[in-house]
Amino acid sequence: MPRYANLTEALKERALSRPDGTALAHPAADGTEHRVSYAALDARADAVSAWLRARDATGRRVLLAMDPGPCAAVALLGCLYAGAVAVPVPAPSASRTDAERTASIVRDAAVDLVLTETAHATETSRGSPESAAPV
Prior knowledge:
Layout: H1 7-17, E1 22-27, E2 33-37, H2 38-54, E3 61-66, H3 70-82, E4 85-90, H4 96-109, E5 113-116, H5 121-125, E6 131-134
Parallel strand pairs: 3-4, 3-5, 5-6
Antiparallel strand pairs: 1-2
Protein name: AMP-dependent synthetase/ligase domain-containing protein
InterPro entries: AMP-dep_synth/lig_dom (IPR000873), ANL_N_sf (IPR042099), ATP-dep_AMP-bd_enzyme (IPR050237)
Pfam family, one: AMP-binding
């Protein structure tokens, strides 16, 4: 079994050697299982990484405000590919307590950028840094 220096190196190798292999499996809305291939996961993470690098995110903190699932995995891997520091938080809700908790994390972690899902963009943009993008 090959040894890898890090997770991104392992994923890149899998995307090349087993592009159609299952990287992620998660329940779909209809109750079936949805699978994401290594090639698809790598391509989506590369796209997020490119967005982050275009904003000079290497070494900077990026808030990941998302529901658990494949989008969160893609955002995390995109941060790793770009050399950014992921700061994951639960997806925002209408709760004032949740909003205050997230705002506190943004301040304490000195977050520079935000990645979120389109469904959460409005809630996330309140009190977030200047650059926010849906994944």
